[in-house]
Task: structure prediction
Amino acid sequence: MGNHIITIAREFGSGGREIGKKLAAELGIECYDSRLIEMAADYGEIDPAILKQAEEKKASSLLYTVYHEMANEKTGYGLPLNDMLFNLQSEVIRQLAEKESCIIIGRCADYVLSGRRHVHSVFIYADMEMRQDRIMKKYEVSKKEATAMIKKKDKERSSYYNFFTDRHWGKKESYDMTINSNSVGIDGAVQLLKELFKLP
Result:
């Protein structure tokens, strides 16, 4: 029996990360999210600060110089930083799928692992009001600031996903399942995904 993987893409403020972490805890498996950057850096034998700044779109001309000096067969030569980040993370994701059952948050993991057995892709979304409330409480910001953060993050995720895949971020056709966390709640979403994890 092969490893089972659930990939979770999510709207900002929908609770997707919390759902993934709770699901992993209940199943007794790992949940991979931001640490994939460090794992990718380790695999590519490159400074993780370079990948972190690339993801945050804070790359300076000096950083590009350092990156090109550190380029190797794993990172590729002459690639834009974002392409290098995507390629390294994708390889780490494929290695994880071979090694263990796990939950993977974001990183186009659904696309990277498409065609594999026992991989279930999920998109978590929620009503704007709920998302605003979650962001306001978590980051202690105003409703206006929360709305701006949501729009910015969603645009970044959509642009990244649409650029590196032949799919459309957030469209139901791109995933095996979409869940409105506003309707079923965080715990309800976890229970739904536990059943999905059991599928052959």
User: Anything to note?
Assistant: DSSP finds nine helices and five strands in the chain.
